[in-house]
Automatic annotation (TrEMBL):
Keyword NAD part of the UniProt annotation: no
Domain of life: Bacteria
Signal peptide limits: 1-18
Record keywords: Cell outer membrane, Membrane, Receptor, Signal, TonB box, Transmembrane, Transmembrane beta strand, Transport
Protein name: Ferric enterobactin receptor
SUPFAM superfamilies from the UniProt entry: Porins
Organism annotation: Chryseobacterium glaciei
InterPro entries, sorted: Beta-barrel_TonB (IPR000531), Beta-barrel_TonB_sf (IPR036942), Plug_dom (IPR012910), Plug_dom_sf (IPR037066), TonB-dep_rcpt-like (IPR039426)
Membrane topology: Multi-pass membrane protein
Length: 813
């Protein structure tokens, strides 16, 4: 009979042995997240929890990062690589149950993990939000992942509106390693990954230290076609010709006359190149049976290279023709440093469990722009620029106290969290505009060409800032279990933020097994999400010539405490509030067969989004906003909408002994629908809705992600062989190209993954296989949404990689 010998960390509060709990039984997954009772399995929780055995899945799956693995295992989870979207190319936004990236809380070993410093603002999925970069945690360091698909703000605080992802690090004694190589069916996107994990005792029983090192590289991909643009500006009308082929023929003629080829003007559009190094650790040392010290954390360095829009020779205000006679396509190089560590102690006295910890995390994102120019400097312009940086740090002090009293489990605690956000200015030439004498332009001076580094303009001293806040929380949980027939959880949390005040939230969850192995479960609770510091203070403005002729003006994204926001009547950001309700069933009708079906409803008021580009003449009046703040247009973060999300999750798992082997059949599906139910306009703002929060922004919230998604996986092991076949269904997606394009519906698609694994020896396994074996892509974009044919595919549904083939060798020692 198989046994589970790892120890379970109950949110840092309770420490028990899962082997003792499940002795002499078939192992089911003991759940940490979602409650403070370590005696429950995933079918005994009042709310749905997925448990992902990373070692088992990663060995056979084509995916190599945490977010990619989850994307093909959990239907309500979505993560799609973006193209030509500045920093969002380098950190994939991920969502759960159709909500935003910032409405999912990520824990590591039950402790809150920091978010990135990056704000998604390039009209991608999660526009205006700040998420957590799961790719900073190496897969080889992870034992399992628990995904709580239910609102849990009353238990864990801000961000847990859609659910919680809890990553449990390895505690193994021993060593393992893996080597992975992959290549797309178009001979690009080449992937290398090498990883090693080593665990050993610290010289005392039940002590351990586990270390993981992972190095990886993902090559760029090109998913575009020759553009149909009027490259040289000689035949402008051809851009809008009914037959785009006419424009292409005209371009070909002009290219040939200049002794060039079309390759000199091709766009690089596809997945960004990513290089990454990660080092993680997890350790615990018991001084005696009652007192233990633990620590965990890691460091990640990610270097990315993505590409912006090409600047064509006809764009004389954007290029220096003496440097780039044929135009150029700038590339954005990032350096992302991510650091985290936690230190804590666990103490047991008379079966009261105390856990006191300090968890620190920071994320720094540096921007470098190459192969570009500052057109206002002319021939003196550099071609590479440091464009600045932003960073975010978070430090959390947490105390958990709990005690199990027969059928009752009581837990309570407190938390103090400090957060800081900073924007650093780049090189002067990355943001400034110069006059013909090489001095910074002032109103009335003569300038030729646009200022700042093209494609990505650097942060200026006006953008630079350092802001911080703190919050204090107290919370309590009570759970009641009656012979695994009746489970009741109640939780409450009071939190005070230094920048916007207090919030009180509660949750009640119940599970009742009315017949053996058949249970009904449900939950209702309130939640909140504090506006992130990034949403409160991110600003990215720049100087440009006014179309109304008043000289140099300011455009960009403005903070809600700016003079521009005050003039237009924008309020400062406040917390989102939510109500979350769920009702479901769990069934175990036969040995090896598990079924869960859960419906949910999430209502969010005052949801924080970024507005469309707002034009208002008051922004151009220096008497109203000040000489340094005049602007023709701007975008603002605002509590602009209310939303309603409803959906259903289905999970069916069956283990079947077949023909001398073991077959696991796993069917999982999700349907989610989000609607905007109300808009909140500033009273002073006369802007129409299409300019305040336009159709393209509504599209991102309601229809840009698949409403339906499902996976059917067949995993068969016999002897030394293991076979995987998995089909993933991505439902219909709608994309609105407003204001420059049209509305397009993308048909549902099915992606097939296959792999074959073979145990060469007891300690060496070889796996080969493919993701998207049949080379399925989203539908071709309609012409008006494709930037004249450049963007052949939109990064929706499964992304734009196409077929991907891999080989992996796993070692255990």
């Amino acid at each position: 009979m198989k046994k589970l010998s790892i120890s379970v960390l109950l949110l840092g509060a309770v420490f028990v042995s899962a082997q003792e709990l499940e002795k002499e039984k078939q192992i089911e997954d003991v759940i940490i997240v979602g409650n403070r009772n370590a005696k429950r399995t995933k079918l005994e929780t009042p709310v749905p929890v997925d448990v992902i055995n990373i070692e088992k899945i990663q060995k056979s799956a084509p995916q190599t990062t945490v977010q990619d693995l989850l994307n093909y295992v959990i239907p309500s989870f979505n993560a799609v690589r973006q193209s030509a979207s500045d920093g969002t190319e380098h950190i994939d936004p991920m969502t759960l149950r159709g909500m935003g990236p910032d409405q999912v809380l990520v824990l590591v070993n039950g402790k809150r993990r920091h978010t990135t410093s990056l704000v998604n603002y390039q009209n991608t999925v999660g526009n205006g939000s700040v998420g957590t970069d799961l790719s900073t945690i190496p897969v080889i360091a992870i034992d399992r992942i628990e995904v709580l698909r239910d609102g849990a703000a009353a238990q864990y605080g801000s961000d847990a509106i859609a659910g919680v992802i809890n990553i449990i690090l390895k505690k193994d004694i021993g060593a393992s390693a893996s080597l992975n190589y992959g290549l797309s069916g178009r001979n690009d996107g080449e992937t290398y990954q090498g990883a090693v994990n080593y665990g050993t005792s610290l010289g005392k029983d039940k002590s351990y230290i586990n270390l993981s090192l992972q190095l990886s590289q993902r090559g760029k991909t090109t998913r575009t076609q020759n553009h149909k643009l009027d490259i040289f500006g000689d035949n402008f009308a051809y851009e809008f010709a009914p037959n785009p082929a006419i424009a292409e023929q005209a371009d070909d003629a002009m290219i040939s006359q200049r002794g060039l080829t079309r390759d000199d003007f091709n766009f690089q559009i596809g997945d960004a190149q990513i290089k990454q190094a990660q080092l993680f650790f997890n350790a615990e040392y018991p001084f005696n049976d009652n007192f233990k010290l633990y620590t965990f954390g890691g460091f990640s360095l990610k270097e990315g290279q993505g590409f912006g829009f090409r600047r064509l020779p006809s764009e004389t205000s954007n290029i220096v023709s003496s440097i780039y006679p044929n135009g150029f396509q700038a590339n954005l190089k990032s350096q992302v440093y991510d650091l985290s560590y936690a230190v804590g102690t666990k103490y047991n006295v008379n079966n009261w469990f105390f856990d006191l910890s300090n968890t620190f995390g920071s994320n720094t994102f540096n921007y470098n722009v190459n192969n570009t120019n500052n057109a206002s400097l002319g021939a003196k312009s550099p071609t590479s620029f440091y464009a600045g940086a932003h960073s975010f740090l978070q430090n959390t002090v947490n105390l958990d106290v709990s005690k199990n009293l027969n059928n009752f489990n009581v837990a309570f605690g407190g938390e103090f969290r400090f957060e800081q956000y900073q924007i650093k200015a780049g090189d002067e030439a990355s943001y400034a505009r110069y006059d013909i004498n090489g001095n910074i332009a002032t109103p009335g001076s003569t300038v030729v060409g646009n200022g700042g580094s093209q494609s990505f303009m650097g942060f200026s001293p006006d953008n630079a800032l350092k802001k911080s806040r703190h919050s204090t929380a107290v919370y309590a949980d009570v759970s009641y279990d009656l012979d695994k027939k009746l489970n009741i959880d109640a939780a409450a949390r009071f939190e005070n933020y230094s920048d916007f005040g207090n919030t009180l939230n509660g949750k009640l969850a119940v599970r009742y097994e009315f017949i053996k192995n058949y249970a009904i479960r449900g939950a209702v609770g309130t939640g909140f999400r504090a506006p992130s510091l990034q949403q409160q203070y991110f600003n990215n403005s720049y100087a440009d010539i006014s179309t109304s002729g008043i000289g140099i003006v300011r455009k960009g994204i403005f903070t809600t405490d700016s003079k521009a926001a005050e003039v237009l009547g924008f309020d400062k950001l406040k917390q989102e509030t939510s109500v979350n309700a769920s009702l479901g069933f769990t069934l175990k009708p036969a040995k090896g067969l598990f079924i869960t079906l859960d419906g949910y409803w999430i209502g969010v008021k005052d949801r924080i989004v970024i507005t469309s580009n707002i034009t208002d003449e008051r922004l151009s009046d220096p008497e109203l906003v000040g000489e340094n703040n005049i602007a023709e247009s701007g975008r603002f973060f605002a509590n602009a909408i209310d939303t309603e999300t409803k959906g259903v999750d289905l999970v069916v798992s069956y283990d079947w002994k077949l023909a001398g082997g073991n077959l696991n059949i796993n069917l999982a599906g999700n349907y989610t629908e989000t609607k905007i139910t109300d808009f909140h306009f500033p009273q002073n703002l006369g802007t129409p809705q299409n300019e305040f929060f336009g159709p393209d922004q509504i599209n991102i919230i309601e229809t840009l992600s698949p409403k339906a998604k499902a996976t059917l996986g067949l995993n068969y092991g016999i002897g030394k062989f293991n076979f995987l076949v998995r089909n993933t269904y991505f439902g219909k997606v709608i994309r609105d190209g407003y204001p420059f394009g049209g509305v397009q519906e993308f048909a549902p698609k099915i992606v097939t993954d296959v792999s074959i694994g073979y145990d060469i020896t007891k300690n060496v396994n070889l796996t080969i296989g493919a993701n998207n074996l049949l080379d399925v892509f989203p539908d071709l974009q309609i012409y008006e949404n494709s930037y004249y044919g450049v963007f052949k595919y939109a990064p929706v549904q499964m992304g734009t990689l196409g077929s991907y083939f891999f080989g992996r060798v796993n070692f255990t020692f």
